[in-house]
Structures are given as structure tokens and as C-alpha cells.
Amino acid sequence: MVSIFWFQPRYLARWLARWNPDVLFFIETDQKVIALTIDDSPHPNLTPRILDVLQRFDVRATFFVLGDRVAGNEEILTRMRAEGHQLGNHMMYDRRSILLSRERFTRNLEAADALIQPTGVPKWFRPGSGWFSGWMIEQALARGYRCCVGSIYPHDNKLRRPNWIARTVRERAYPGAIIVLHDGHPKREYVITVLEGLIPALQAKGYEFLTVSELYALK
Fold it and tell me: pTM for the complete prediction?
């Protein structure tokens, strides 16, 4: 069972999507499109470097922003919007959302919403650590949010091996997939190397990078 969740076979994503129709894991499409999502933004030093790489390769991404990291970094969020990236809600703090009570979950979602001012239609949230429950989805939907979990998770926040991470994502990529990478800490600067290797490799295969809402619109 552990190996299934580690290697994330495509049939697992299909099974999860079938049983959770209000949660976005990927979309079914024959078009060579893919979404890059980046969690735990912003970081005052790392995030601008990530944005520089995305700008160099003309790629739009979806950043899932933590509310408690907005103060002092508002200019970074302004740059994200100006360069065509989408902002999503990753709650207020870098904690497991599944452990929150209903009241605290709702309060955190709404507080982060006010700070982040997410972009795109619909608005997207990603629970901390990716785990969700039915009532969390209901609370989010009532506030104009849909849940995006993703389908390619290379465990980049744990392994810290950029070449392995880039190769893993490249080998697992497929049309309609959603990639999950991480920002938010200076020790994660290896994500720069990951992106510099991964993006041109997927573009050479004919993939176009879309925001989550752009990808969802093709569903």
C-alpha cells in the first residue's frame, strides 16, 4: 500500500477522482497540456527566483499561497498576478488541514481568502498536506472554492534530489496531469534546478503549461 501512494499509478488517480467528483486530481484529455502548481508560497528570496525561471520559459503556474506568509510579500503576489500566474488558497498555516475542527477550517479558509485574494474562476484551494474530507469540500464549495489536489507528487519537499525529482515528473507526465512542487523555504532552492530541467524537457515533448483554471476549463 505504501508503494502505491509513493509511485502514484495513474489508475489510483482515476479511482480517487471517481469517488471524489468535487476534487480535481487531473482532467481527461488528449491535448498535451499540463498544470504546474507550487505550494507554500511566498518566500521573499526563493519565490522571485522561481518566477524568473517561469518567465524565462514563458510558463504560467498556479501558486497555492499560505496566508501567514503574505504580510511583507505583497509585491511578490502582485508580480504573480501581473505575469499571468494563478493564486490559490493553501489555508493560513503550513499545517494538516484535516486535523482542524469545522469552525477552525472555515475560519482559516476565509482568513486566507481575504489576504490572498485568489485569482481565476473558479477559485481553488488545496488543504495542507493534501488530505481532505467531505465536510471540508462542502464548506469550500459554499464559499466559491473547489479543491485541487493534483496527480503527480514527486515528494520534492522530502527528497531534495533535483535530478531525481525532475526525471520522476518527466516520466510520469501525461496530458491533463497536475504537478505539485514546493516553495516556501530557503532549503528548497533545489526547486530552481528542478524547474530548469523539467520545463524545457516537457516543452520539447510538446506540452503546454496551463493554470489550474485553464486546465479545468478543458474538462
Answer: 0.93
